[in-house]
Amino acid sequence: MRLKALLLAVILMLSAIVTACSDQKDSGAKTTNTNDTAPAGEQETTADPDYTSDLPQRDLGGLTINFLTPNSEHDPDWAVWSPRDIYAEAENGETINDAVFRRNRIVEELYNVKIANDDTNDSLGKLQRAVTANDPVYDVVQMRFNTVSTPMTNGYLLEVKHLPHINLEKKYWNIEATKAMTLGGHMFLLNGDIMLLDKDSSGILIFNKVMHQDFRLPNLYDMVKNYSWTLDSFYETIKGVTSDVDGDGQLTYKDRWGFVGYRDTLPAMLVSAGGLIATKDENDFPVITILNEKELSIIDKIYMIMYDNSNTFNLQKLYAQGFSAIYAEARTMFSEHRILYYWVRLREVETFRGMETDFGMLPMPMYDEAQKRYYTALNSYVGTTLAAVSICSYPEELSIVLESLAEQSHRILMPAYYDINLTSKIARDDESEEMLDIIISTGVVDIGAVYDFGGICGQFMEMSLTDNRDIVSRMQKLMKGAEAAINRLVKGIEKIEG
Q: What residue ranges of the chain are covered by domains with CATH 3.40.190.10?
């Protein structure tokens, strides 16, 4: 990883030279193939053909590719989830911003295009109005996972098969996430190195290293690597940590806890243990699985951990006590060594980087040792995906630009995200880097969380606020509505031609 960080510095220096030179060239100058013009440092990082595009040499004549992205800075709790991965106006010294800017400039120079962006808190409304009016103002839309249903079924999106230069066999695309989001054989959505918000949404654990040492716990990294990191072994390590620090006879946010999570932790645990709220049948359509024997067995263990009020604190219960800034409160608790494990999404870890408390990162635990692989839930509320807009009149040219952006993202954006922004600024030890390898490479999209059929996912989470264990009864009451929601989705997809 340190080598990657050094290599990134070379990449950014060389790409800056490319950018400076490109500013001096005539905008109509002939472009050349990506593989012929990549700076030497980048060429070395992409020698593997799996990460090297097969794009043709093309001059796209100054074409502008317009992105539409979901800004959320109007809401303080959501500001951190605004896109930073698609567009940058200029370099400003921030690692991710500058990598995005340089990536885009390289692609612009290679194919004589301009990349533009409308970052707005009304992205889906603008998409609907543009398509309805047949106004091709947008070419690509970035959407939260849980907002894709209406654009897919209402004809706002273009199927990937109409983007001829998108090569999903290349490893800068996340084919697993892409396949998980297909419906009835129709593929609209793309995920991969081109974006960060999908990876940012990964549900993980951070642990307080001071408390880990004080309580003489086993080497957690070794447990992950030897596949003994399971729900049961995790549960054993949180026992005996909680203490009534303020001596008031009650266990509250003012005390010390073995584990702190919140409602979103439950579906993340379900995924990490190999379960899903919904999967797909032989026709590639959704099927509810949360009441299957396997999932119910996992949920029993989730309740064992999440509802153990002598070891686990559900942060969102503070809302009922009049709190608003609950995540800031959790950061305070963690910095004061009053949380051993805290469940977060990867992007949120950056809010901890200013504190002096040493911490490490871990993937969520497996169900048992027989599982033999880790799964990391991508959160449907904050994670994003990309799609071409249906009324784009130049899909071939668009596919060239998207494929090139994905390739250059692997060369420039991912090293910046991984080695500098994450490793150097956040992770506090070398072994956390290895944990990040596992986390980033094991992302899973649960379509039951994405579409929340009949409110099943929402209710599964809300039940945690009252420690309600009657999952079967609650889900059975919702099943009729869930099946109706699936049927509406299926009918919407079946209307799609070709």
A: 2-200+382-424, 203-380+429-494
